[in-house]
Each structure stands twice: as structure tokens, then as C-alpha cells.
Amino acid sequence: YLLIRPLREYALGRGGLVFCEHPIKVGTKTAYVDLLILLAGLKFHCEAEASCHRVCNDLLKANANRADGLLIVTANLSIANACRRQLRRCPDLPTSSVSDIAVCTLGAAIAKIASVFESQSVLSERGERPIGTSTKRGPE
Predict the structure, then answer these.
(1) Distance (Å) of CA 126 to CA 119, 121, 137
(2) What is the DSSP letter of 128?
(3) In the chain, at which residue ranges do the beta strands (DSSP E only) sit?
């Protein structure tokens, strides 16, 4: 919770929708995302990890929920490096929807969300459609 709360506050301050311990379906089971952020037309899964043992599970959850990004937040760089190594060992997903995976400490995680938010805001100001949004209006 100590790693997730500042991300939650930052996203809320930027007008994002935030869900803590959000349930999702992974196959036939229910899993929980530590923090789900809907910001600037994008869906981010944020997971706080104290070790590298569950990062493949985090990737499966993000893929099952068709997240645009997976942000794994760790307490220090050594855990972040171990998580990156473990992610390289994860089995390939047949159709991965997760286009952006980052493993970092809290400060870098906030900077990552800020940079994505700022780049999407610039697109909106230019009249371009942010990534992950549809031009359709309702069911057809």
C-alpha cells in the first residue's frame, strides 16, 4: 500500500479514474489488480512487488484485462532488476495486449505515468485521438 498510494494520489490529481484491489477475470479465476488507473484514454495496471516471484502473474492479469500498460513498482533497484530478469523468463502470451511494461521504483513510476499523461495530453490538444480510445459512439 505504501508504494501504491502515491500513484493513486497522482492519478487522481490528474483526473484519472482509480480502482484499488480491482477484481478481474483471468481464465476461470478471479484475480485482483493492486491499482487500476484509467488516465488519458489508457488503462494501466500497477502492481507493487516486494520480490520477483509474482511478476509473470502480473503480466497475465494485465493481458487478461487488455491493459495498455503494466507498471510494476518496487521498493528498490535490486528488486526491480530481479523482476526484469523474471519477466524475460515468463512464457510468451499468444495475443498480448500490453504494449508498455515498466519495472521501477516509486519515483520513476510516478515519472512514467506523468510522461504518458503529458504525451497523451499533447495529442488531445492537437486534436489527435489518444491511444486506446475509439472514435465510435455507442453500439451500432
Answers:
(1) 11, 9, 21
(2) P
(3) 17-26, 29-39, 42-49, 69-74, 100-105
pTM value? 0.80
Cα gap 58→61, rounded to integer Å: 5
Residue positions counted in the chain: 140
In the 8-state DSSP scheme, what is residue 52?
S
For residues 69 and 99, the answer to whether their CB atoms sit within 8 Å is yes
DSSP label at residue 135: S
Where on the phi/psi map is residue 67: left (φ > 0), alpha (ψ -120 to 50), or beta? beta
Q: How far apart are the first and last CA of the chain?
A: 41
Hey, what amino acid is at 107? G
Digitized pLDDT (tens) for each residue of the chain, 140 residues in all: 688 999 999 888 888 899 999 999 988 999 999 999 998 788 999 999 999 999 999 999 999 999 999 999 999 999 999 999 999 898 877 667 788 899 999 999 999 888 877 776 554 555 544 444 333 333 33
